[in-house]
Design brief:
about 50 residues; mainly alpha
Length: about 50
């Protein structure tokens, strides 16, 4: 038996997980898109000021 807060120790009867483990600080798709748009907007504004 393992503690409920223990996320690293596998239980003897637990099925093995397939694939890459999720990151604890993973971003949602909306957060990723918001940051992408902000970078794109900043880059666009930067190129306009240089021209």
């Amino acid at each position: 038996m393992k503690q409920s807060t223990d996320k690293f120790t596998r239980d003897a009867f637990e099925a093995p997980r397939v694939g890459r483990p999720p990151k604890p600080d993973a971003k949602s798709q909306a957060q990723r898109a918001r940051e992408y748009r902000a970078r794109k907007k900043a880059k666009r504004g930067e190129s306009e000021s240089l021209a």
